[in-house]
Amino acid sequence: MTFCISRTAITVGALLLGVSSAWAQADEARAKKIAGGSCFLCHGAKGESTSEIFPRLAGQHAEYIAKQLQAFKSGERKSSTMADMVAKLTPDEMQAMGRYYEKMPTQSTAPKEPQLAAMGQYIYQNGNKFSGVPACASCHGPEAQGTATLPRLASQIPGYIHTQLKSFNKRDRTNDNAVMHAVVEKMTELEMVAVAEYVSGK
């Protein structure tokens, strides 16, 4: 059996591919302009924040970033600073921002407290059967890479992760999976710090 592909079909396909490429370039240019206008002040020029107040965005999943931006805009996730920043962003721009940061290289740093990180590694990979804390790896993956809907924790600033875990525990952060509330309420302060120290070095 032979197949015949018309010259018209090839031309249309090439045209659509060209349009798609042009849109992608326009999206990236727009995202770069937005990032360069305000985001870099807190998150770094390449998403490499060094402050535990502001997360590293480099390498984070595009879908997750877009989801968080929308949550800040709707008020589902609370932050007066971020609410102002995203107030005028469109859904398309949020997706573009996600893709822009996802492509940036990540930078992990060796744990400052190896023994604490070792404890965190055990909890992350195995959980704590005595208190009922499940293994973080069951959702975020063995290498803390996350998924499209769950954040990449690897190379994130430990202080930021610790703060977010406490926010889930206090129900200050409610926009993400309710499973996090059930998990973190069983964790001790030491366990939170240990897990944060471990994943930051991945």
Considering the chains and any ligands shown, give keywords for the structure:
mainly alpha; 2 domains; single chain; 202 residues; Cytochrome Bc1 Complex, Chain D, domain 2; 0% strand; 9 helices
CATH class of the largest domain: Mainly Alpha
- Examine the secondary-structure arrangement and name the CATH architecture of the largest domain: Orthogonal Bundle
CATH topology of the largest domain: Cytochrome Bc1 Complex, Chain D, domain 2
- Global shape: globular
Question: Which superfamily, in CATH terms, is the homologous superfamily of the largest domain?
Answer: Cytochrome c-like domain
Q: Give the tally of β-strands.
A: 0
Q: Segments where pLDDT lies below 50 for 5+ residues? A: none
Class based on secondary structure composition and strand pairing: mainly alpha
How far apart the termini lie comes to 52 Å
Strand content: under 5%
SSE succession: HHHHHHHHH
Please, what is the average pLDDT?
90
Summed up, the helix count is: 9
Largest sheet: none
- Secondary structure: helix percent: 55-70%
CA-atom Rg in angstroms: 20 Å
How many independent structural domains?
Answer: 2
Strands, helices and their partners?
Blueprint: H1 7-43, H2 62-74, H3 80-86, H4 91-102, H5 114-126, H6 137-140, H7 158-169, H8 179-184, H9 189-200
Helix pairs in contact: 1-4, 2-3, 2-4, 5-9, 7-9
Question: What does this 3D model show about the protein?
Answer:
The structure is a single chain. With 202 residues, the protein is mainly α. The protein folds into 2 domains: 11-102, Cytochrome c-like domain (Cytochrome Bc1 Complex, Chain D, domain 2, Orthogonal Bundle); 114-200, Cytochrome c-like domain (Cytochrome Bc1 Complex, Chain D, domain 2). It is 57% helix and 0% strand. The chain contains 9 helices and no strands. The protein has helices at 7-43, 62-74, 80-86, 91-102, 114-126, 137-140, 158-169, 179-184, 189-200. Helix 2 (62-74) packs across helix 4 (91-102). The model has no long low-confidence stretch (mean pLDDT 90).
